[in-house]
Amino acid sequence: MTARRLGRLPVRHDPRTLRLASYLRPTLPPPPEAIDYGDVVRSWPMYANDRLGNCTCAAAAHQIQAWTAEGRGHEARVSEAAVVHAYQAVGGYVPGDPSTDQGAVELDVLRYWRATGIGGHRIGAYAAVHANDEATVRTALWLFGGLYTGISLPTSAETQDAWDVALDAPEADQAPGSWGGHAVPIVAYDPAGLTCITWGAAKRLTWAFFARYCEEAYALLSADFLLRGVAPHGFDVHALQADLAAVSR
């Protein structure tokens, strides 16, 4: 079995974090029944997440792959060195010192990604999405080419080919976070569930699993995905940018 590391530290709540629902106008058309932004990606690198707890930065690199393959028509692949460098900057990891491999907070990664960039790619903004609001999750995924998420994995998920709520497992094994915290980008959905990218591969998860175990989710505004930098009809990008400028002072 491929080695698998986690590494998402507990969610940090910041009252300044913008909420996506505030910028969705009534004129926004409904999202399609199913969408897949990862189907054109040739392969997904491990990005050292088999030996380091750098899932928060590996997830960012996987999202960049999906964005560029879909939005630009040609896939940009961030180097493993760039992913590890981001992990050093955000998580304090020092190569050769295992004691410093302690994981990272997603909000710290988002701030670094916006201010500095990962592998030469920066995001323009990020906004929180409520994981239990399936309609908004679908809309966010459709509009922005994916969701950057933090999952509190239960021990019961360790042996599952597809992640689902294991009602027949012992209660302790079903507990959120009993395995640990993990960061994954969600790149597809359909009526049966969603698809995330983790440990160098696509993995399915049910809507019930996502609703129960997703602790944080963010829609990201990226020029890698949005065609010519134009936001979708029905999304108030100007209001989001103005609010972001206000809270960034």
Strand-residue fraction? Answer: 15-25%
In the CATH classification, which architecture applies?
Alpha-Beta Complex
Residues in helices, as a percent range? 25-40%
Stated plainly, the CATH topology is called Cathepsin B, Chain A
- Give the full name of the CATH homologous superfamily: Cysteine proteinases
Distance between the termini: 47 Å
Q: What is the tally of beta strands? A: 7
**What's the alpha carbon Rg, rounded to whole Å?**
17 Å
**Silhouette:** globular
Number of domains: 1
H/E series, N to C?
EHHHEHEHEEEHEH
CATH class bucket:
Alpha Beta
Overall mean confidence score, pLDDT:
90
Q: Structural class of the secondary elements?
A: alpha+beta
Helical stretch count? 7
**Poorly predicted runs of 5 or more residues:** none
Largest sheet report:
7 strands, antiparallel
